[in-house]
Amino acid sequence: MPFQAADLTPYAQQLKNMNADLVFIAWAGANAAAMWAALDQQKVLDTTNVMTGLADRVQYQTFGPIVGSKAKLLSHYIYQGPKNKVNTWLVKQMKAHAGHPPDLFTPDGFNTALMVCHAVQKANGDNVDKMISALEGWQFLGPKGVSRIRKADHALIQPMFIVSLFKQNNGNWEAKWVKTVAPGNVQPPVRPFP
């Protein structure tokens, strides 16, 4: 679908006519609401498995009424998903000090701090080569669960989540954890360093 198109109905109809088993939506256009409305009007959301990524919490109230529970949502992190002591601590601290639960990328900052501390401690200082070696292959428990730094390309292999949005009794939209996807099932292909 073109980013600037005003009428997206023909594109939604074309997608429906393809009878796809699965459609992944990656959309950043200003007409995103119109795109979702066209997909809904053409019953694509009712007849096809539609997946997309869930953005941060501030988007729930906008995205919920458009998509509701019709699309399957992939999430980098949802604070209700991981069941481990690190996530429990992080959620408690964020609510107490920030007044809200952790958001989509909060675990990234937390994991970065864990990695910096581990690297400096194992290298016994700031020797970059020793710090890199200390992190290669390191496995640790972060907010999302057990994560590992792949030695071949330094990718962080970590769990991901399938979620849904639901409307609460107070009218606000909230995310609900559906399933945790194991790190091995979502790891990117190895891209060795040149």
Domain unit count = 2
Shape: globular
| Biggest beta sheet attributes | 5 strands, mixed
SS strand fraction: 15-25%
CATH homology-level superfamily of the largest domain: Response regulator
Which secondary-structure class do the elements indicate?
Answer: alpha/beta
Number of helices: 8
Nearest-integer average pLDDT? 92
Q: What CATH first level of the largest domain would be assigned?
A: Alpha Beta
- In CATH, the architecture of the largest domain is 3-Layer(aba) Sandwich
Placed side by side, the strands forming the largest sheet appear as: 1-2-3-7-8
Q: Roughly how many Å is the radius of gyration? A: 20 Å
- At the third CATH level, what is the topology name of the largest domain? Rossmann fold
Cα separation of the termini: 37 Å
Please estimate the helix content. Answer: 25-40%
Number of strands: 8
The secondary-structure element order is HEHHEHEHHHEEEEEH
Low-confidence stretches: none
Structural features, described:
This protein is α/β, with parallel strands linked by helices. It folds into two domains: 9-80 and 159-186, Response regulator (Rossmann fold, 3-Layer(aba) Sandwich), CATH 3.40.50.2300; 85-156, no CATH class. The chain is 38% helix and 21% strand. It has helices spanning 9-17, 32-41, 44-47, 60-67, 85-97, 106-123, 128-135, 183-186; strands spanning 22-25, 49-53, 72-75, 139-142, 145-149, 156-157, 160-167, 173-181. The strands form two sheets. A five-stranded mixed sheet has the order 1-2-3-7-8. Strands 4-5-6 form a three-stranded antiparallel sheet. The model has no long low-confidence stretch (mean pLDDT 92).
